[in-house]
Amino acid sequence: MILGGLLAVMGLVSLAYVVALALAVRRNPAAPRPEAIALGAVTNFFDALGIGCFAPTTAYLKFRRLVPDELIAPTMMTGYALASATEGFVFINAIQVDPLLLGLAIGASALGAIAGVWVGGRLAVRPIRLTLGVGLLIAAATFSLSNLGLMPAGGTATSLAPVAFAVVVAASFGLGILMNLGIGNFAPTLILVSLLGMDPRAAFPIMMGSAALLMVTSGIRLVRVRPLDFGFVLGLTVGSVPAVLLAAFVVKSLPLAALRWGVVGVVTYAAALMLHAALTERPTAAPASA
Over the stretch 159-198, which tens digit does the pLDDT of each residue have? Predict the structure, then answer.
């Protein structure tokens, strides 16, 4: 019953996001950009396999200078919202985890996302760059640990004792806030549940469902109040959803070690560029959200 209600809420919020995006595009006519379609397809194919799409997308946008730094996170949140919703539906139905833990963790993430929209819209550019740079370094370190076999092995549990249960819910709220600043929740969630003794696979419905609900929730507001490039947002959307379905239903296993090392190099370089910009360029205030 909890899962049914959760899926129903996700479906309704996703529909509300589609309506909000359509209205925003009607006010700001745009066609999907081919480069964004390709980017969304590649990053979300591997996102559905657990690599995450925020770090490589941020790296690409930074290298190509396609989006102002302060709009990188909102662009990803809106462009990947429907792909995340697709992942949420797939993994919640495919992997067993305590329904109460799943529902509360996802709900906490959504509340964090709502708070994060307010915070992210009022931060100056320099703190945003610093946050993104540090987040990318953390992601690179996580990928390196995974490649070296140093990630927590985890246990076999599909639920948690009350204290650990509360830790996961509280952490989900914090990660919901950080998602608005371009810091993905996949690696932190995977590490957290593994350290607490859960089966690492249990992280997938939690992190996918959390990302789904918080991204469509935040996206409803972001498409209304942020000056986004809707051609790029539409391109990311068009490319990402089919790629998620392909990865989830066609590709069952893929050797990812070599790819992860490539991601480490790219993401580390992007983090260095972001931090250099934050520490050397004159800061300007990001426009406050309405």
Answer: 888 999 999 999 989 888 877 666 667 767 777 787 787 8
Question: What does the domain layout of the chain look like in residue ranges?
Answer: 2-280
What sign does the dihedral 138-82-237-26 (CA atoms) show? negative
Specify the residue for token string 């129903």. Answer: 8
Local structure of 175: helix, strand or coil: helix
Six token digits for residue 265: 């190099």
CA 259, 271, 173, 10 torsion: positive or negative? negative
CA dist 96 and 102 (Å) reads: 10
Q: How far apart are CA 178 and CA 198, in angstroms?
A: 23
Q: Residue 101: how many CA atoms within 13 Å on its side-chain side? A: 24
Tell me the residue type at 214: L
Task: Give the SS3 label for residue 285.
Answer: strand
- Classified as helix, coil or strand, 288 is coil
Tens-digit pLDDT profile for residues 4-55: 888 898 899 999 999 999 999 999 999 999 999 999 999 999 888 767 788 7
CA 182 centroid distance within chain: 7
Specify whether the CB–CB gap between 16 and 80 falls below 8 A.
Answer: no
Q: Compute CA distances 92 → 48, 78, 216, whole Å.
A: 13, 21, 16
Longest dimension (CA), the chain: 53
Cα distance between residue 218 and residue 141, in whole Å: 28
CA end-to-end span of the chain: 37
Neighbouring C-beta atoms of residue 104, cutoff 10 Å: 18
